Amino acid sequence: MAPSYVREARRRVGPKRERIGPIVERLAVEHADAKIALTFRTDLELLVSVMLSAQTTDVNVNRVTEQLFEKYRRPEDYLAVPQEELERDIYQTGFFRQKAKALRGTARVLLEEFDGVVPRELDELLRLPGVARKTANVVAAELGRPQGVVVDTHVRRLSQRLGLTKQDDPVRIERDLIRLVPRADWGRFPHLLIWHGRRVCIARRPLCEECVLADLCPASRVMPERPGHGAPTGRAAPSA
Ligand code: SF4
């Protein structure tokens, strides 16, 4: 977009502080079923699933963990087998050597420093080997203690398109979103953007004509005639 169009588009939609409330509300109606797509039963399974989800799809992780979690139930179990065996068991998630090393390192620290229990604080989660900020944010939010905003590829793209940030770096984007999004919504906001990104605001072909945010979005390709363009539809779950 040329600079003059960008300015005009931003003027049309108004300040982001006034838009963030309606954006969250409309997405919450549109994607009432938005939640984490990983399958887990325990805090440890959540942590392992999120660690395995790097560079692959949630569907693929779920396929692998269905059997994995029958064999590995406690942190001790990840240390009871040779690393090569664990690598074979998670091979299909990709980057299996790094992931197996991270899982075993995390299991060791969980046992040595946290009595085998997955911590809930972000700074504690970040002490686990192979657990970076995004993983820690996802786990903390799922455990009911969101302490930041998860920024993945969808959150990054939609935050930029919606004019909520001008940054490109995930840490800086998160900083902008933390200032903007009400704390009570830190947990669900990324899920709403992720599901909107999968269903409507698709990377290469955003469906602006179907989007409930069209009148709030400076990147919209349609000129909505009325606020709330496109009624919430209650969409079917996408494949992750
Ligand atoms: S209006 Fe278009 S670009 Fe903006 S959020 Fe909706 S689909 Fe994405």
Short description:
This protein has 240 residues and is mainly α. The chain has helices spanning 3-13, 16-30, 43-52, 58-71, 75-79, 83-90, 96-113, 122-125, 133-142, 153-161, 170-180, 188-199.
Q: Largest sheet, if any?
A: none
What binds here, in terms of ligands, is:
iron/sulfur cluster
**What's the number of helices?**
12
What is the average of the pLDDT values? 92
Radius of gyration: 20 Å
* Model regions low in confidence, pLDDT < 50 over at least 5 residues: none
| Element string (H = helix, E = strand) | HHHHHHHHHHHH
Determine the structural class based on helices, strands and strand pairing.
mainly alpha
| Approximate helicity band | 40-55%
Distance between the termini: 30 Å
Shape: elongated
Q: Tell me the strand percentage band.
A: under 5%
Number of strands: 0
